[in-house]
Amino acid sequence: MEIFYSPDTEGNRCGTGSGRCILTDDEAAHCVKVLRHKAGDIISVINGKGTMYSCRILSASPRCVEADILSAEENWGTHPYRLHLAVAPTKNADRYEWFAEKACEIGVDEITPVIGRHSERKIFKTARIEKILISAAKQSLKGSVPSVNAPMSVSDFILKYGTPEPAGDNTPEGQNLQDGHLRLIAYCFEDESRPRISVRQALEEYNGDEVSVMIGPEGDFSREEAELAVRHGFIPVHLGASRLRTETAAVTAAEAVYFKWMD
Amino acid sequence: MEIFYSPDTEGNRCGTGSGRCILTDDEAAHCVKVLRHKAGDIISVINGKGTMYSCRILSASPRCVEADILSAEENWGTHPYRLHLAVAPTKNADRYEWFAEKACEIGVDEITPVIGRHSERKIFKTARIEKILISAAKQSLKGSVPSVNAPMSVSDFILKYGTPEPAGDNTPEGQNLQDGHLRLIAYCFEDESRPRISVRQALEEYNGDEVSVMIGPEGDFSREEAELAVRHGFIPVHLGASRLRTETAAVTAAEAVYFKWMD
User: Fold this and answer.
1) How many Å apart are CA B120 and CA B123, to the nearest integer?
2) What value of ipTM does the predicted structure carry?
3) Residue A66 sits in which domain range?
4) Residue A4: in which H helix or E strand, if any?
5) Angle A147-A152-A157 (CA atoms, 0-180°, nearest 5)?
6) Nearest CA in chain A to B106
7) Are B109 and B51 within one domain?
8) Given B139, B142, B240, which is nearest A258 (Cβ)?
9) How many domains, chain A?
10) pTM here?
11) How close does chain A come to B200, measured CA to CA in Å?
12) What is the mean pLDDT of residues A141-163?
């Protein structure tokens, strides 16, 4: 089943109105030049926001394909939870691209590259990852394409996505209950004042459907970063006994969430 | 922590006797040329069979490093289960190499490339995968290097590693109890006569520590292959709602087993 991507199904870039689906650029070229689609053919198009459209082609050129929307299926190939993965850039860009592709296949909604104090790579380009996520979503028959945020520092991420600093109760569980959102930070060092539970246990004890997981760089999160995260509602977890690379740790976190909701 | 690999710690390739550890070829070159180790330095060496040796270098040349074994740690970085993954070759060899690296990081003991009726790629070279597994084991601090078997057909794999065909009881569970070894086959098609359970459920219901999982090619296993597998004790499972590539399915199976034994 060949899927096309049209981020703007109400778009007007080829001078058509609503109820139409437009393919441009690579999507149009692939549709017409590679797959040889012609007017009258039925194609499947995702809008990247969870909807799959069945469309009949009206006009087909390598630059622009116009199609009539015949039917729409919402929440097509979506998953019953919302997962945000904050993952430090890997030294080798391929490894991050691989993680993004696999996380999309398994199920992820939002990816934020986070730069930690121990990050060796501090520059990150999101454009390439966006392309990979689009093709992974098409390949794995998902109507929704995960979003990629601009890179930010670990502390900015914590302050933006964590809970407001709690006044009294300082246990991670207490903080975590503030808004029913499960926030996890995976790091490798031992800290007696703050024992880590396994990601599996943290997920088993959780009843909601919104999860964020922070995965650090090869040099791990700094103690200050871990402390700040815990103060803002992130539960410290470990990913088991194996020593995992950053991208493997990130996929392992995605799998742990995937298994929690597996029938 | 830099780990070296010496598959034969009692070896004699440089004319030394027992109680010595020998690095040759790439390992010796890496030790001497790249890391500039000299006589007297202490190095860590795995034998690929689960033991890590702490050694003091006696003589160092780019072709051969001889070292005295000071201490040995058995079951170093090993996992509490035995996992055999039978995975069909992917069209793109990189994807299989990636799976092998990740499965090793997570925890796997044996990999068999299985060629199915719907396999597009029927030729497979194990040498490259063996190299990748050695470097992944070193990188993830595991004393044991997973073994890679020669490729075989799906039916040969089933006849070699499945249970003898059961006389009476024909339920997968019944067969599975024959030797306490959990055998799973993951395929995508629906078969009312043989409903699949999730890999997670199959693992939850299992009390042993020896698991085999068969993962098919992009074109899936044939119905005949699935039927033969079930007759020989393999329980039909699914890997959840997501449509996963072969290599992602294989890693997902490794993660499912990893999570079962996660504290």
Assistant:
1) 9
2) 0.92
3) 3-73
4) strand A3-5
5) 85
6) A242
7) no
8) B240
9) 2
10) 0.92
11) 7
12) 96
